[in-house]
Every structure is written in C-alpha cells, then in structure tokens.
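Possible regression after last week's pipeline update?

I re-ran a chain I had predicted before the update to compare outputs. Posting the input and the new output here so someone can diff against the archived version. Not blocking, just want to make sure nothing changed silently.
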Amino acid sequence: MIVTITLTPALDKTVTLPGFAVDKVNRVQSMRLDAGGKGINVSKVLKALGTDSVACGILGGGTGRFIQNSLTEAGIACDFAQVPQDTRTNLKVIDPVNHTNTDINEAGAPVSEETLEEVFARAAAHLHKDDIVVLAGKAPQGTADTIFADWTKRFRELGVKVYMDADAALLIAGAAAKPALIKPNDEELSRLMGRKFAGIDEMAAAARELVAGGIETVVVSLGGDGALFVRKDQTLRGKGLKVPVLSTVGAGDSMMATLCHGVETGMSFIDTCRLAMAVSAATVMCSGTQAASMDTVRELLLGLLLASGNDAALALAEHAAGSERAFVRLMNRKAAELGMDDTSFANPHGLDDKQHYSTARDMAVLMLHCMEKPAFRELCGTRSATINGETYVNHNKLLDRCSGCVAGKTGYT
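New output (post-update):
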C-alpha cells in the first residue's frame, strides 16, 4: 500500500494567457481546474500508472469538496481530515508566447495540533510493515519545521518506509531523521549539505554521503538536465528529454510517484529510473497538473538512452538475471566453464574492485569465444550507428591501428 500525505493541498487553477503583461488587461485563452498539492499529484500519477494509493491530508470548505470529489471520480481513495477553512487556490499562468510559467500560490490557513494528529492517525490506519508513505510539500503556517522528521520516526516504528519530498527547513530536519528516500532538487541539496556544487559529479558525491549516512535512496532533480538516482553501490544519471513544455508543475511529483510504483510492482532500480524520467517528461507536456498520458510515456521510453556503458551493463544484468549479484554469479560460472582459471568477476561493468581481476590469457579466451557469435562480430565491426536520430561512433582505434586485432575493450584510463 502507498499512502500520500498533503498537508497544504490546493485547487490548481491553470490559465493560458498569450502575451501575459503586468499593468495591462490580460485575456484568458483557456482555463482548467485540478486537484493539486504535491502528495495529491503523486496519487494522481500513481493511478495513471495502474497503482492504487490512499490520499490523506487536510481539506476544507468548497474548494476542499471540489478536490475530494475530483479525486473520488478519478478512482483515488481519500481519507482527509476536514477543517472549516477553505482549502487554498493556486493560480498558474502559462504564456505560450513568452514561454513562461508563473505561479501565484496562496499561503493556506494554520491548523491545530489536533488536526495534524488526526491526519497522522488516518494515514497510519492504512499502513502496514514495508508499505510506503509519501510526505510531500509544505506544512501549514505555524507548524513546527520538525513535523516531517517527527512523523518519519513514528512511521519507521510501524515498519513503514517514508519517501520525502519537502523543501527548506522541513527537508533539512526531515533528512536528519533518515527517511528511506528523499528527492531534493539541486538548490535544496546545496542547502541540505551546507555547500555549493561545481557540477553533477559533486552533487552525486553529496548524494552518496547522504546514502552512507543512512538514507537508502537519494534522487536529485536537475530540472531540464534530468536527475541523479543514488543508492548504495549505484549512481545513475538520467538525462532530461527534450520535449515541448506546457507546465513544469508536477514534474517532480510524477517522478516521486514512479519511484513508489517501481517498488510496489517489483521493478528493477534501473527500469524504475528510466520510467521516472519518461513520466516526468510526459508531465511537463500537459497543461495544469493532470497526469500524463501513458501512450506519451511509452513513446518517450523509446527515446531514453542510458548515460554510460556502465549503466547499460547494470541494466542488462538486472534484466538477464534479476539482480546485479545474480548476474555476477552467472559470469563466474561461465568463466569457469571456459577455463578462465585466473579470472574473478565482482561486478558486470568493470569498475575497480579487489575481487575483480583477470589475465591477458583469460581475456583472449573470452574474446575468442565471443567472436564465435555472429551478432558480436557484427557489433565489433560497426564503425557508427544512428539511433533515434543521433549518430554514435565506435572510437575503438585498435581496430584501425592493429591489423591483427579483430576486437578490443579498453577502459577510460
């Protein structure tokens, strides 16, 4: 089971306004209303992916009734605490002429400690050991910055995994409580770590520090540049897909939903990350905060390429054997069958490891065996290939410089 908690939901009113200008009369071209708020957006995308969830949080007044009715009509289970005050309304202004997205968000009313405790109790009633609860968005005015940290500890006592997507002080306090997953953007990661980063590599190193400190998974949103997915012994870079952008609202929530969906359905980590990139890209192609079309997601998945050969090796390993460790066992078994007595594989991608070694003789044995396969011979002899409109060149200079060399494998060094 997945439960999402939105303490500050909103009625999202999205207007398309070409040539939006300050101090002038602006005429709306189109308008739509959506149930909004980060946790609610996660529930909507989960539904589109075919995974059920329960949306919890705080609703009130006419806008609260609109939100609950809209979620119910979409087939999403709801269990909200009710308050007298109207749930806030957020205005999103999309200007297709100037290519801008402007958010005008209401603050929302303060709520009592009793209401917050009711939210926790309602959410906890749906959860069991190893279930996921998503703590997303902001806290109501006047609420302690430690609320997500406190709830993380309480949910963990129930055996529940906490996935957190918060900002500012909520994230800093919440991360210290060691949730199972956090999803900061690059600026939030910088505030969390107390330092600025010169580039992607430094951000990845910071994410690995957080994982080493006890957070199982750290996902860093990079906006149009994609995302980093980091867990123990694995760092993946998802590159942003070039798509027409209608609204950036909800892109991060779509990514969070897909991460939950991947765990709930038993997907491999790499496949989950690829799907997260596609769903997030499909979301920005939509107006408002509606969930993306799964047809669009499938089309985008066809255009996703893993960022490196190492990532590709991990993807193949998980697909072929179910896990990296199982694939390594298969590698060593095959090496023994081929008589590669001086070889030990520790991973499928060739990264340094004291249990990962071989000899020139054994590598020659392996290469001769591989060259018996027609598909492998063809691949080694391919100088370039065009995939999804992009041309990739084989830079293996050994094939050109050594007349006796039929194939080769070199590392970066």
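Follow-up from reviewer: compared with the archived run. The first helix runs from residue 38 to 49. Marking as no regression found.
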